[in-house]
Amino acid sequence: MAKYTSVSMNLVFLMVMLVVVVGIGGANGVAICGMESSELAQCLPAVRPPGAPPTPGCCGVMHHADLHCLCTFKAVLPGLGIDPALAMALPKKCGIAAPPECGGAW
């Protein structure tokens, strides 16, 4: 039951993230893994094909993000139009150490 509840909560959270970040371009006031959705939107060009280099603003956001939290969403990235390989490479491109629980990719 607890696992089902956790999965359900993740799905609800992902729906909110999808609507806010992708659907309306990132409205202020919604926190996602330690970032405001408008801040997270700064990184979209870097994680969507063809994958632009991350901007200083994006890297600044990533330095304050909860990477452990972001890691929990890596399986749903393709459904959000995000290339998982580009997303997993983003912390390294911003000079951030990768948390090991994300398969070593973060």
From TrEMBL:
MF terms (GO), sorted A to Z: fatty acid binding
Bifunctional inhibitor/plant lipid transfer protein/seed storage helical domain mapped to chain residues: 16-101
Database matches in InterPro entries: Bifun_inhib/LTP/seed_sf (IPR036312), Bifunc_inhib/LTP/seed_store (IPR016140), DIR1-like (IPR039265), NsLTP-like (IPR044741)
Bilayer-spanning residue ranges: none
GO biological process terms on file: systemic acquired resistance
Keywords carried by this UniProt record: Signal
Domain of life: Eukaryota
Cleaved signal peptide residues: 1-29
Signal among keywords: yes
Protein name: Bifunctional inhibitor/plant lipid transfer protein/seed storage helical domain-containing protein
Lineage: Eukaryota, Viridiplantae, Streptophyta, Embryophyta, Tracheophyta
